[in-house]
Amino acid sequence: MTSDDRSFLNWAAMAIAVAALFLGFFAIGRVGAPEQATGPEGSTEVSVVELSLGAFKLSPEHIMAPPGQVIVRITNIDSQNHNLNILGSRTKDLQPGESQDLELGELAVGVYKMFCEIPGHNEAGMNGNLHIIMNAEPGPYTGSATSDGEVDHFHGFDTWQEMQKTMDDRALRFIQEEKSEFGGQPLEFEMVDGFKQFVVTAQLADWEVEPGRIVEAYTYNGTVPAPSIHVEVGDMVRVILKNELPTPTIIHWHGIRVPNAMDGVPPFTQDVVVPGDEFVYEFEALEPAVGIYHSHNGASQVLDGLFGTFTVGQMQTPDVLLDQGFKATPDQTIEMTLNDAGVIGLSLNGKSFPATQAYSGTVGDTVMVHYQNEGLMAHPMHLHQPLGWIIAKDGRELLVPIPGDTINIAPGERYTVLLKLTDPGVWAWHCHILTHAERDDGMFGMVTAFIVNEA
Ligand SMILES: [Cu+2]
Questions:
Q1: What's the 433 CA to ligand 1 centre distance in angstroms?
Q2: How far apart are CA 114 and CA 86, in angstroms?
Q3: How many Å lie between the centroid of ligand 1 and the Cα of residue 380?
Q4: How many whole angstroms from 25 Cα to the centroid of ligand 1?
Q5: Which of 239, 199, 244 is closest to 219 using CA atoms?
Q6: What is the structure's pLDDT at 66?
Q7: What is the 347 CA–ligand 1 centroid distance (Å)?
Q8: Top-tier CATH class for 1-30+314-455
Q9: Distance between Cα 378 and ligand 1 center (Å)
Q10: d(CA 75, CA 59)
């Protein structure tokens, strides 16, 4: 068998494993018989259902009404503008506190998508379903609470086979489609006047978050995440920031010990760098760090892509793990930056499944993972196997490593985790807030896989 064959088999095995994993999500909690459109017979009444638009969330997420005329009364209770699209009908952009009735006309039994059309909001989770169910009480969706038990198990598909095929097809795209460019590649430096000198250009760039979804991202050097910067303890570091964005920006060195004047918080520590201008950051890398460089001039700049990793020196394998066969020098280091908002949305390293990068290694390998969260929500990242050992939090080594197969990473946090690859196979790796990993049509967002090959 050629290595190509073998790699295909690995991929195929992964597809099955991953599909089986997620099938489990859908086997739970939905009961009743499928129902197709039955027409509006006997349903001349008008149902009014109330819905609130919150922070990247519909409340309730799922609503229901009986067949017939349906009006959704929508109120924006968030502090920023949102709109709502149902079946192509769309509210205007509602200001905070504003309401609008969306008249949907005569609706037949079925499940209809609702989502905010403002770029990034749908991807950040601002969506839900309107379920039209025989004899439903207008209001929040309660699943089985109708007298006729007309519950849609199949989430708008005609049959479970059709639903499953859609989910499987989406999973297979992860292995079948060519991947577009990945961000987070190492940034080269030049030695100038004793400094390791890096050039970082803040610029707009088209970025493919998932196949066919190309957004105008805020980037450093054109990628999301930005190129990774790595230096050693004792290095003199110079970073030249060139601003080619349409708006002022800045770099803050999150989790890196720098002089106050280099901290990048306008207007306290420096003036903003206006479009067309540049600024030179200089500092000594004083201690080991697992950090982030990102904008500190408006949340949207970060969420839309202005972030990258900045590491100093190495986190050490603790003695207690050396005793368990972990290597002192990892075979590979993976940086995994989480995001959930802005134009990028739910993503791992700027990519949403099926565009996410797959990782691979060999039984016996030691792998170091730096998780960092640049989004707005905490994400419990779960690798099916092997078990991880948290060896550092925010770039500080722990006195005693902590085991975790599910590691919750809050916004701004960094966790360094060591893995020892022990069991071959294809192991799913995803956020365990299931709606960050799965939709009715299959996997999306914060999902990838670790392929462990036989030694
Ligand atoms: Cu999540």
A1: 5
A2: 5
A3: 6
A4: 15
A5: 244
A6: 85
A7: 9
A8: mainly beta
A9: 6
A10: 10
CA dist., res. 56 & res. 24, Å (int): 26
Selected residue with higher pLDDT from 376 and 132: 376
Residue 297 confidence (pLDDT) above 60: yes
Please state, as a whole number, how many other Cβ atoms lie within 10 Å of the Cβ of residue 95.
11
CATH 3.30.70.260 for the 46-152 domain, yes or no: no
Report DSSP state, residue 353.
B
Q: At the fourth CATH level, which superfamily is domain 181-313?
A: Cupredoxins -  blue copper proteins (2.60.40.420)
Neighbours of 405 (CB within 10 A): 14
H or E element: which one contains 132? Answer: strand 127-132
For residue range 38-58, what is the model confidence (pLDDT) as tens digits? 334 444 679 999 999 998 899
- Indicate where the chain has its CATH 2.60.40.420 domain(s): 1-30+314-455, 46-152, 181-313
Nearest alpha carbon to residue 131 among 163, 154, 98, 147: 154
Give the distance (Å) from ligand 1 centre to CA of residue 446: 7
385: tokens are 């196997």
> Of 330 and 442, which is predicted with more confidence?
330
